[in-house]
Amino acid sequence: MPLEILPLLVAAFSGVAMAVQGSINSALGKVIGLLESTFIVHLVGLLLVSLLLFICKLGDGCLADIQNAPWYSYLGGVLGVIIIYSVVLAIPKVGVAPATTAIILGQVFTAGLVDHLGLFGLNKIPFSFYKISGILLMAGGAWLVLKR
Fold this sequence. Notes:
This protein is mainly alpha-helical.
């Protein structure tokens, strides 16, 4: 089954943005502090999304449907704070490449588990020999990147 290339390119771009964002956030954290930089990052993001949603009218949904969202969907904001704070904390101590490697490995392990169990209303995509092998190869590659 061929994969759609555009969504994968968008996802890869997201990875590029995450590495750059982590570096920029860490630089800000060195100047103003960890929680303070986490606050600024989310404030700037809120301002940008507000502009896109309310001024540019780019939203394709309906905010009035918010009461229909499952309770766990609100945890994204909490997780966002944890992610930004953790990245701002980790990158200055270990560097961008090792921190990003650890982040990606944690994402892939967790994503595989979410897919396998079909959590959060997503379709179940069971583990296969190839997926488990790929994750183990990534873990080996991460070990090499993290080795000093």
